[in-house]
Amino acid sequence: MTIAAWPASERAWERTKGSLAGGVSTGLRASMKPHPIFVEGGAGPRLTDLDGNSYLDYVLGWGPVILGHGHPGLTAAVSAQLPLGATYGTGHLLEAEVAEKVLDRIPGMERVLWSNTGTEATQVALRLARGVTGRRRFIKFGGHYHGWSDPMLVGYRPGADGTLGLGSQGQNPSALEDLVLVEWGDLDAVAEVLKAPDSDIAAIFCEPVLCNSGVIEPPEGFLAGLRELCDATGTVLVFDEVITGFRIDRGGAVTRYGVTPDLVTLAKAIAGGYPLAAIAGRASILERTTQGIVHAGTYNGNPVVLAAAGATLDALDEPGVYDAFERQGRALADGIRAGFARHGLAVTVNQVGPVVQCIAGVADARTFTDFIGADQEFYDRLTVQLLRRGVFTLPGGRWYLSTAHTDADVAHTVQVLDDALAATLAEGPGPVAR
Length: 434
Fold this sequence. Notes:
By secondary structure, this protein is an alpha/beta fold. It has helices at 7-16, 72-81, 93-105, 118-133, 187-195, 222-233, 252-257, 283-286, 303-316, 321-342, 368-371, 376-388, 407-427, and strands at residues 39-43, 46-49, 54-57, 111-115, 137-141, 154-158, 164-166, 179-182, 201-206, 236-241, 263-266, 277-281, 347-352, 355-360, 391-392, 398-400. It has a seven-stranded mixed β-sheet with strand order 4-12-11-10-9-5-8, sandwiched between helices. α10 packs parallel to α13.
């Protein structure tokens, strides 16, 4: 059975447009086709919408819901904390207990700062790097996303003229002066910038796996090369692990690739869907927040979200979690490749742990430039056909798996994909690289 329409969601969207800008709480949700779907709840790997339709969920709240919806241990931990109060404005032991769990998982990290969102965490990391080095600018890589703040939203996607620059109207143009944009994987270019007499580079920021733009792994030796260059020039190396942290390995990219940065920013998976972020790093850097570098926030260290984080990290420590992530991620990636091949369609499917990226129309995407050549119009049509068949996916091609997904869920999804591809082709052309 396929879903023909979503009348209750359409009515809900019309209502929300009267009170919310664009009818959504974050602008990206308005891009979901055919229109935003409104849900009444979720359980495990499934969501149920206002029309009563059930979906296998590969959106997972755009990444945070790593344990699935309504995880019993997570729910119990939050429920136990709620009667004790929402926030205190002073210290409580959950702050340290959960920080200790973070430090246990990521080698080389000595202290934690609590924050609320990934965007906040990267702003704090930049301020720390500037404070400890006395320098102003930083290196960022094309296609890497470090939140929507003015300093960071540069070079994420090409503008109307095809160049990488500011990412938003209203953004301060001086943001362009504060960074140097380099191609991901070009170690020689990084070295040239760092070793220039007037470089003034405080930090290098990177997604250690380029998850926001293709799930592209770092070239062999690249992360180690960044570490060496930072050591040689006194530059702070920051891994933005908002997506990869605790997802692609127990210690995220640090343990998967064996390279230790100076700072790691964390969010999404850390609290299983509750709003929490963190900066982990060397004590000599983070302790500067007591010596003149301001790090503030009323909700920092909130006991409700820290209870959620403790339960999430405990659940991720259960035996076999990361083996299952790899197995199911590979099965989903292989199934997507096979489905496109059966229909004679070009595609690249990248996978790291439970994160999978479908790049429609591009046969061998290895770089950010390759990734932006994907046929997103075709993929948008495919997401609608998947939705009609009970599979909820993100625009742009990224898929997330949770601990609640089963091998049977993945096998069913691969079967559905074949039908969805056939329906997409029946209504229009196949994918063509831009």
